[in-house]
UniProtKB/TrEMBL annotation:
Matching InterPro entries: DUF6804
Descriptive protein name: Putative membrane protein YdbT with pleckstrin-like domain
Swiss-Prot/TrEMBL keywords: Membrane, Transmembrane, Transmembrane helix
Highest taxon of the lineage: Bacteria
Bilayer-spanning residue ranges: 15-33, 39-57, 62-81, 87-106
Species, as recorded: Microbacterium marinum
Amino acid sequence: MTKKQRTPSTYQRNALAPALIAAAVLFLAPTLLESDWFTVVRFVVAILAAIAAWFAFQARQWWWIPVLATIVVLWNPIFPFPFSGPVWSAAQPVAAVAFLIAGPLIKVRRP
């Protein structure tokens, strides 16, 4: 019985874990919109969007930076925008989908 050798991956996806965590939080966010816990959602999403944007910068995938920077600005907890209503509720899963697309696509070639 011989073991099959695995070929190592040629790419490294550093933004995948932050993107998956942010997407999970954003899918739960509409249930927390009117509570004090939404401040925690804002912190988590803004920080993870900044981390993913940094990984996009390192990977030289510039087109993700404006998308993630927009999420950082709109979900910032320091100077929050007074958004509410169905548009803000719909923005949560839209941002989650953006994270789910960006996470796997932001990648760098392993040396």
